[in-house]
Amino acid sequence: MTQLLDDVQANVAELSTKYADDGQARRERRQLHSEDFAELVTAGLHLTGLPRAHGGLWDSPANSVRQYCKLFRTLAHGDPSVALVTTMHPGVLAFWHHGQAAPSDVAPGWQGQLEHVVAAVDGGHWFGTIASEPGANGDLMASRATARHVGPKNHWLLSGDKYMGSGSGITSFMLTVAKPEGTDIPDVFLIETKDQPWDGSTGVKLTREWDGVGMAATQSHAFRFDDMAVARYGWPDYALGLAPHILPFISALFAAVAMGVLDSATTAAREVMLRRGGRAKALERTLWVQAENRYWVAEQAFSGMVSAIERNEESLWSASHGKLAIADLGESIMSDIGRAVGGQSFSRSAPFAQWAADIRALGYLRPPWPLAHEQIFNQLLDRADT
Questions:
Q1: How far apart are the C-alpha atoms of 289 and 218, rounded to whole Å?
Q2: C-alpha 179: how far from chain center
Q3: Does domain 2-113 have CATH number 3.40.50.300?
């Protein structure tokens, strides 16, 4: 596995350099290109969603997080939008690759679904997520989408509004959440999205194309589902119970993309400031030092959240703080860099403005700002009670 991991890391680094060399054109993109994802399959990045037993890279959140963060941080040096979309792949698939044995009454269905998922990943298909809903502020348990069972077996019809479907048009499968008929508690469902038309004819209609200023080429579109055929998670009512163990891992992958952007931004800013040398004004020097110091602190926050996940010790607590800290620090770093390097930070021909927007987007990723603060507040209350 070590050799496979080394090979994939080398392949991804090579592609990232290629993408960075085409940086100006990529920053102007507002859509994903399928060729990139075909290249990444050839590079082996899709194997982040395949267990080692099946020839992939996946072990567990604790044992995979550091290597995966390195992969996606490296890819973000070349194209942050592509990197962000591909982080969804192992994050979603972690809900299937937990290694637990299902109870006998659901075991056949669970095993069949698991084998289907493994075969899809092995075949080079990408997985993503479209779980966010208007008014839910990122809270999966607040889903108002519904799913009704129509048989035979695991055949359900999904209805509801969803948005932030990163990778729409690229992914073959997407995870979502909805309330099964007759219940008040959401469960996980799997949508087969490959080659689906978006005109409503099969139950899914594009309601708004992604037009984000940051992460502009992620195709995080919004859709209306009306009786869209989906499959319920093969182990009913089990998936969301895994969330406290998997969401910190996902947060770390998102943070890795942000750190990759900050790597690029601070490196570029250093080149500007070092060229100025002694000609730099006092304010420029102060802002540059301030940006570098905050970048150092962000690195410590990132390292801390990864280490906590590896130890499986207060991982939710550390990931919540780490993700929020990096989002705050990242915006401050980009503001300092912008004022230090001057007018070029607002130029379309320079990368600084787009990097600043990409970093700002981190604050809206799961958990978004309101939910992130609420989670930390509740964790503080829980700690006070104990």
A1: 32
A2: 24
A3: no
CATH H-level, domain 126-239: superfamily = Butyryl-CoA Dehydrogenase, subunit A, domain 2 (2.40.110.10)
Q: What are 48-82's pLDDT values in tens digits?
A: 999 999 999 999 999 999 999 999 999 999 999 99
State the SS3 of the chain: CHHHHHHHHHHHHHHHHHHHHCHHHHHCCCCCCHHHHHHHHHHCHHHHHCEHHHCCCECCHHHHHHHHHHHHHHHHHHCHHHHHHHHHHHHHHCCCCCCCCCCCCCHHHHHHHHHHHHHHHHCCCCEEECCECCCCCCCHHHCCCEEEECCCCCCEEEEEEEEEECCCCCCCEEEEEEEECCCCCCEEEEEECCCCCCECCCCEEEEECCCCCCCCCCCCEEEEEEEEEEEECCCCCCHHHHHHHHHHHHHHHHHHHHHHHHHHHHHHHHHHHHHHHHHCCHHHHHHHHHHHHHHHHHHHHHHHHHHHHHHCCCHHHHHHHHHHHHHHHHHHHHHHHHHHHHHHHHCCCCCHHHHHHHHHHHCCCCCCHHHHHHHHHHHHHHHHHC
What is the residue extent of each domain of the chain?
2-113, 126-239, 241-385
pTM for the model stands at: 0.96
Residues 134-178 pLDDT 10s: 999 889 999 999 999 998 899 999 999 999 999 999 999 999 999
Q: Which residues pair with 221 in a beta bridge?
A: 165
pLDDT tens by residue, 356-375: 999 999 888 878 888 888 98
Tokens of 268: 């570029």
Q: How far apart are CA 326 and CA 149, in angstroms?
A: 42
pLDDT for 282-301, tens place per residue? 999 999 999 999 999 999 99
Q: Which CATH architecture has domain 241-385?
A: Up-down Bundle (1.20)
